[in-house]
Task: inverse folding
């Protein structure tokens, strides 16, 4: 019964979280904390911290965390599956129509106008992460004096390596994590 | 048959690795997917990847899962979709399951905190690399309309926090008007 409740709660999270990860947080809170009382608000804020610190989409992360805490592995599976069922059905339909009609010239004109927008959205995500990386703050809270030189150098070197030698993204990301941690450890500023 | 199994395996492995290493929101993984599937594997065209991103963003649900469904479908139909989803959700499921058991130790470990902070610089570099290529191609179309849309959309999302959904729908509207104008011009061209 509890498992079924979890399953349907996460189907709703999957279905109504339109517009990226952070849009899902209030929905999950409503389902898990307010309606079904499966977690306290403190546990829920722990969940958000973990979800932000680890890889993966925030709704899958929270589905796993909630599922594990409440019902172990079966909970994890049910919550995650519930969370992706709506995505799967809707995107499969959209993919079908996209590949059927994308060569039609009218569709091309319309899609053409979406591409600059998508480039801008990706650029904006990049700029936000860069600010977090270099200043540990969002744009409106940036203090120039807080610039982290280690991160700045890693960013410049990484971008150079990507442009010049076409290294893979994974190498760059993991490499910057390892190099940065070693540098900070040597500087003695990992406390 | 062997070839198609091989393709599914590459698809699964790519999604698995991308998902395991992606910190931050959905657009991060989209730039990684673009790099992997367009530049490295050459399975998708660049325009196609941008279209997929727009569709992904307008559908409900987690962006990386949505993108996996569509890219998987493109590579190998429904089986491809399922394979791609599995690759995408397995890493967070395993990682979070383990962390939920050792939550306190994880949250307070200074080395983990440092590594996660520094990795952001690396992630930002990857996104900038992808954006330089993408923006270059928009500029190469030499359509003032597209270049202006890109700049305005960037300012709107980054400086004014306008949501991605709104940006996509406004641009969809502009695209429809553009289509109307194009069709109209064609008609006139035929008459004269």
Result:
């Amino acid at each position: 019964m509890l498992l079924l409740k979890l399953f349907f709660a996460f189907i709703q999270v999957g279905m109504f979280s339109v517009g990226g990860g952070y849009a899902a947080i209030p929905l999950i809170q409503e389902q898990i904390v307010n309606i079904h009382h499966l977690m306290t608000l403190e546990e829920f804020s722990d969940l958000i911290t973990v979800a932000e610190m680890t890889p993966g989409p925030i709704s899958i992360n929270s589905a796993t965390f909630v599922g594990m805490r409440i019902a172990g592995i079966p909970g994890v599976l049910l919550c995650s599956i519930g969370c992706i069922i709506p995505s799967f059905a809707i995107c499969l339909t959209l993919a079908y129509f996209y590949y059927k009609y994308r060569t039609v010239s009218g569709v091309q004109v319309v899609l053409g106008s979406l591409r600059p927008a998508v480039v801008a959205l990706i650029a904006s995500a990049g700029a936000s992460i860069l600010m977090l990386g270099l200043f540990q703050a969002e744009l409106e809270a940036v203090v120039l004096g807080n610039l982290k030189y280690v991160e700045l150098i890693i960013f410049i070197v990484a971008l150079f390596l990507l442009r010049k030698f076409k290294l893979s993204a994974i190498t760059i990301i993991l490499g910057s994590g390892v190099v940065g941690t070693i540098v900070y450890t040597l500087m003695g500023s990992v406390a | 048959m062997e070839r198609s199994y091989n393709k599914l395996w590459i698809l699964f492995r790519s999604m698995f690795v991308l998902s395991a290493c992606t910190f931050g929101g959905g657009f991060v993984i989209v730039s990684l997917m673009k790099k992997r599937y367009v530049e490295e594997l050459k399975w998708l065209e660049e325009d196609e990847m941008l279209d997929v991103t727009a569709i992904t963003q307008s559908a409900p649900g987690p962006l990386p899962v949505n993108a996996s469904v569509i890219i998987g479908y493109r590579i190998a139909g429904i089986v491809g979709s399922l394979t791609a989803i599995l690759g995408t959700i397995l890493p967070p499921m395993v990682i979070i399951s383990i962390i939920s058991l050792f939550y306190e130790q994880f949250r307070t470990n200074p080395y983990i905190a440092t590594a996660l902070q520094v990795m952001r610089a690396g992630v930002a570099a990857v996104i900038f690399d992808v954006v330089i290529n993408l923006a270059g191609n928009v500029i190469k179309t030499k359509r003032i309309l597209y270049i202006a849309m890109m700049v305005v959309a960037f300012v709107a999302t980054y400086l004014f926090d306008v949501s991605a959904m709104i940006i996509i729908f406004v641009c969809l509207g502009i695209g429809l008007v553009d289509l109307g104008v194009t069709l109209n011009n064609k008609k006139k061209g035929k008459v004269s």
Q: What stands out?
A: Chain A touches chain B through 99 residues (CB under 8 Å). Chain A has two domains: 2-101, 148-191. The longest helix of chain A spans residues 58-101.
